[in-house]
TrEMBL record:
It comes from the Bacteria. It catalyses: (6R)-NADHX = (6S)-NADHX; (6R)-NADPHX = (6S)-NADPHX; (6S)-NADPHX + ADP = AMP + phosphate + NADPH + H(+); (6S)-NADHX + ADP = AMP + phosphate + NADH + H(+). Binds 1 potassium ion per subunit. Homotetramer. K(+) binds at N64, D126, S162. Bifunctional enzyme that catalyzes the epimerization of the S- and R-forms of NAD(P)HX and the dehydration of the S-form of NAD(P)HX at the expense of ADP, which is converted to AMP. This allows the repair of both epimers of NAD(P)HX, a damaged form of NAD(P)H that is a result of enzymatic or heat-dependent hydration. Catalyzes the epimerization of the S- and R-forms of NAD(P)HX, a damaged form of NAD(P)H that is a result of enzymatic or heat-dependent hydration. This is a prerequisite for the S-specific NAD(P)H-hydrate dehydratase to allow the repair of both epimers of NAD(P)HX. AMP binds at K400, G401, S402, G403, S404, G429. Its EC number is 4.2.1.136, 5.1.99.6. This is Bifunctional NAD(P)H-hydrate repair enzyme. Residues 15-216 form the YjeF N-terminal domain.
């Protein structure tokens, strides 16, 4: 159950319900929860910054501010120095009791409008708003956030960085940029997608000694790291599927080559490529394990499709007559398929019924076209967009981006916690398409193939970036770590 709670993601409303359940049904006083939160935060602070001797506490008017005040009281009792800046002259309820405890411990409290020299503090603690803010910070709070972000001092956020939407991961500017965030009770789903990666820093979850919430189901879940079990010794290439990668119009042969090689590296037994004749020589020279076929007319494609068990269509496809002809042939077959890039744009232009076992892999711009909206609307609520896409097209959908989401038509959503900015480079999506297609070819369901494929792809990117840095990361750099991760212990 501990693993489940580490992976379970909840909305802010669900977490508030867990708080109420703890207080009203389990009999845990609110101040006790606040005290546990303060102890948890102090533990994270002392672990991450063991040399810290002085804290600046940013205290909002609600319980998030109460957490910060109690942290300050504990820090003072432990021999550290603390100074608080409060947004309001008074507090209420448990937050008032926490404020009094801080003052009784000898803590000084000033106004948020009168910030001292920030360079005098080793760590700044953000207890301004937590999940209690539904709009952009304003006034003194906004000015204070801008000051601390510019200070260069490490920030510890309590529950979540102030200004970050707990449900969508959208940063309402100004938003705290924390070095670490200790979140309480449960993971909020917005901590893992959109702007969260730029705002949260290292994430720590503390359940505050509460049992798992048996009265509610998570809104989403985090992917977990695993590979595939070892193959049977008595195995052959035909048992591991035959992927046909379709694409590579004039000038875009690299896209379909990356897709097809990724399918090989991810374990497909056979991989064929249907592409323009001009690319055949290059494919044969660079990767002879691929079976490259020149397809200049729709009739050339028919025998290739008959031999395939999975289709991967879209990388370098284009939207001219040639690309539309390949798309027309592919979409009418009842084969498992991965639909990406220009195939998604063709689908957006003319919605058609898809094969039963289809996976769509749009980036936000493609998702906007599929839903007939704009990219900003997609990014404003990635969870809603992914679910809408899966429901509308009756397929598993991978909404790519920071914190990629995998959504099923029944509303189930998984979130990828890996990946890095170096992967924002050409060809990365083509590799992902090939990986998912290979997993489909090896017998995984669309949901399983999409989840495992996204996780392997992101983790391979992290391994490659750790070796040589994020800038300059190439899509083909993922091939070696991808193979290693795929063959790692599946448990």
């Amino acid at each position: 159950m501990k693993l489940l709670m580490q992976r379970a993601l909840f909305t802010a409303a669900q977490v508030r319900a867990q708080d109420r359940h703890a207080i009203e049904e389990l009999g845990v006083p609110g101040f006790t929860l606040m005290t546990r939160a303060a102890h948890a935060a102090l533990g994270v602070l002392r672990t991450r910054w063991p040399q810290a001797r002085s804290l600046l506490l940013l205290c909002g008017p609600g319980n998030n501010g109460g957490d910060a005040f109690l942290l300050g009281a504990l820090a003072l009792q432990a021999g550290l120095r603390a100074h608080a800046l409060a947004l309001s002259a008074t507090s209420e309820g448990d937050a008032l009791r926490a404020r009094q405890a801080y003052e009784e411990a000898g803590g000084a409290c000033g106004s948020a409008d009168d910030a001292p020299d920030l360079s005098a503090f080793d760590v700044i603690v953000d207890g301004l708003f937590g999940t209690g803010l539904s709009r952009a910070p304003e006034g003194a709070a906004a000015r204070l956030i801008e000051q601390v972000n510019a200070s260069g001092r490490p920030l510890l956020a309590l529950d979540l960085p102030s200004g970050l939407d707990a449900d969508t991961g959208v940063a309402r500017e100004p938003c705290v940029r924390a070095a670490a965030t200790v979140t309480f009770v449960a993971h909020k789903r917005g901590l893992f997608t959109a702007d969260a990666g730029d705002c949260c820093g290292a994430l720590h979850l503390d359940r505050l000694e509460l049992p798992p919430p048996g009265f509610q189901s998570p809104d989403a879940e985090l992917l977990h790291a695993h590979g595939l079990p070892p193959r049977r010794r008595n195995s052959h290439k035909g048992a591991n599927g035959h992927v046909l990668a379709l694409g590579g119009d004039a000038g875009m042969g690299g896209a379909i080559r990356l897709c097809a090689e990724a399918a090989l590296r991810a374990g497909a037994g056979l991989v064929s490529v249907a592409t323009r004749a001009a690319h055949i020589g290059g494919l044969n020279a660079a990767r002879p394990e691929l079976m490259a076929h020149a397809v200049e007319a729709q009739a050339d494609l028919e025998p290739l499709i008959r031999q395939a068990s999975v289709l991967a269509i879209g990388p370098g496809l284009g939207q001219d007559d040639w690309g539309r002809a390949l798309w027309q042939s592919a979409r009418t077959r009842e084969l498992p398929c991965v639909i990406d890039a220009d195939a998604l744009n063709l689908l957006a232009a003319q919605r058609v019924e898809l094969p039963e076992h289809a996976v769509l892999t749009p980036h936000p711009g493609e998702a906007a076209r599929l839903l007939q909206t704009d990219t900003a609307s997609i990014q404003a609520d990635r969870f809603a967009a992914a679910r809408a896409l899966a429901e509308r097209y009756g397929a598993v959908v991978v909404l790519k981006g920071s914190g990629s989401l995998i959504a099923a038509p029944d509303g189930h959503v998984a979130v990828c916690p890996w990946g890095n900015p170096g992967m924002a480079a050409g060809g990365m999506g083509d590799v992902l398409t090939g990986v998912i297609a290979a997993l489909l070819a090896q017998g995984l369901s669309p949901w399983e193939a999409a989840g495992l494929g996204v996780g392997l792809h992101a983790r391979a990117g992290d391994h490659a970036a750790a070796a040589h840095g994020e800038r300059g990361l190439l899509a083909s750099d993922l091939f070696l770590p991808l193979r290693e991760l795929l063959n790692a212990d599946p448990n």
